[in-house]
Amino acid sequence: MGVLNTDLAKQLSATMFGARLWRLAPGQASTRHRHQQQTELYVVLEGTGRVRVEQQLLTLAPLSSLLVEPGCVRQIFNDTDADALW
Question: Which residue numbers in the chain have pLDDT < 50?
Answer without folding.
Answer: none
